[in-house]
Amino acid sequence: MIKIKLSSLEVLRNSGYEIIEENENIIIRFAPPSINEAMSSDEGSYEGINRTIEVIGLKENNEVIILDAYIIEGNNKKRKLDISELELWAEYINGL
């Protein structure tokens, strides 16, 4: 189970993340680095595809429990992301 601190939401909000809160439900959306940025390379052309990560969670006490995550490419292509792929992201977010 992956959790992030509830207090981290305000830091994320101020860092360009979109945070939607509906009662106990939380949706976090952000644009990951491009493939070129992630590879620290200018080789090849991977640009042109808008990607957004959508993380869905539930507020419980002082934490957000991550329930689901998706990669949205373009305006409508949605692919489920394995939650375990968010472990490093959650560690980073909890350290802010």
Q: What does this protein look like?
A:
The protein has 96 residues and is of the alpha+beta class. The chain has one domain (3-94): 2-Layer Sandwich (Double Stranded RNA Binding Domain), CATH 3.30.160. 20% of the residues lie in helices and 41% in strands. The protein contains 3 helices and 6 strands. It has helices spanning 8-13, 35-39, 87-94, and strands at 3-5, 18-22, 25-30, 51-60, 63-73, 77-80. Strands 1, 2, 3, 4, 5 and 6 form a 6-stranded antiparallel beta sheet that branches. The protein starts with a strand and ends with a helix.
Note the main attributes of this structure.
96 residues, alpha+beta, Double Stranded RNA Binding Domain
Number of domains: 1
Strand content: 35-45%
Mean pLDDT value: 87
CA distance, first residue to last residue: 20 Å
The description of the largest β-sheet is: 6 strands, antiparallel
Shape: globular
Instruction: Write down the CATH topology.
Output: Double Stranded RNA Binding Domain
Oligomer: single chain
The name of the CATH architecture is: 2-Layer Sandwich
Order of helices and strands: EHEEHEEEH
CATH class: Alpha Beta
